[in-house]
Amino acid sequence: MRIALITPREEGLSAFRAGLEGRNARIECYRDDIDFLQTARSRTWDLVIVDGLYTPFHGILERLLEINASLNTAVITNLSAEAFHEAGEGLGILAALPAKPAAADVDPLLARLRAIGGLDPAVEEAQARLDAARFRHHPHCVVCWDRHPFGLQVDYRVTGVHRVEGAFGCGKSYEGYEGLVHGGVVSSLLDGAMASCMLAMGLEAYTAEMRVRFRGPVRTGRPAVLKGEWVRGEGPLHLLTATLEQEGKVRATARAKFYQVRLDADPAPLPRGGGMRYLLSQARKRLV
What we know:
Largest sheet: 6 strands, antiparallel
CATH class of the largest domain: Alpha Beta
Order of helices and strands: EHEHEHEHEHHEEHEEEEH
Strand content: 25-35%
């Protein structure tokens, strides 16, 4: 699971953070809401925790909920229960945390998140596999490494056992024709979504074949949503699909076959030989 922690006192919450990380949570800290909104607003979060001891939390949460009305939030506070209820009225806050939250506060918080459907154990496991595989196999990926100076920085998140979703801001620096995102960038985004599906399932694979259809213009300056889905597998080949949506409309789709391998081995082309060629050709036919 991915959790954002908005606080200027990152070190003072080390025990609480360690408790969350011990439950397979990936924590990212931001000094304030401006820092968060500038760098992480387009990412998908399971929970955002706001440290209300250092800034009025009501205004911050209002701004966050304007962007994502379904965002799950918790607040660190020293207010009494009555005062907190009054200050947070209408904001749908999941939980109030003590002024010095500790590891013991983690399980009750996650239990509340699961109770409202904010966490699915199967999805949590798949996300943990994806995060571990990204770090192990392509930590500097031009598509999904969030610190790549020239990369796309897409944070693909597991939304189902066989599905992932990500967001892309479509910045001007990725332009091809005037006002349009370059088609190669679009293709990379779709490929990244499908590759993330494979890794989330615990399957290591290379793209063997991909067909992209551009259904409409992908405009710069307007955020896009990427969705990838594993469809089925035949032997070492797997069929996956992906879409890019912008302003509620599908702008591009992809259909690809991935070849399952061990990614810690040297990259190699598809195996050759009469018997292998026959097996792969039959698998391709079944995946059409």
